[in-house]
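Progress narrative, work stream C.
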Amino acid sequence: MKKSSKIVDTIIDYLKKGNPTYNELQVIPLDQSLVELGYMDSFGVIDMVTFLEGYYSITINDDEITKEKFGSINKMAKLVEEKV
């Protein structure tokens, strides 16, 4: 299993614990923006950043919290993988 797929699993587990909506989804979109799909708001983004920083002992800079770098679960995992 690739490191990034473990990170994806960690992100999905965290999302499911914090928001029951994710438990109802048949497939959690990995390459689409959770914000654009309406599954995450700005508070959810900040919460995810805080969780990932604490869990992986990394720092995610404000300029990295963009659709291009943080806009999907796979993009979040890639960013984390680059930092650990």
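Work stream C, second folded protein:
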Amino acid sequence: MPKKTLFCLFVFLLVLSFSPSAYALGNKDLETENVAVNLAREVERGGYKIITTEELRTGSTKKKDMLYC
């Protein structure tokens, strides 16, 4: 590998390591995962049915019987 390429790679990695956003992405992923797992467990435990926003919109415009909480 040419020295110029190695130097550019080193500088890129150095800048990335000091970037606060590089660390924030990992934390956000873990937070999102925890929320998703907790939701899935509560749904399973409570026997709930999950619907999408589109399903909710379709059901409410067609006046389907739905339980809203």
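The helical segments are 3-17, 20-46, 53-61. No further action is required on this item.
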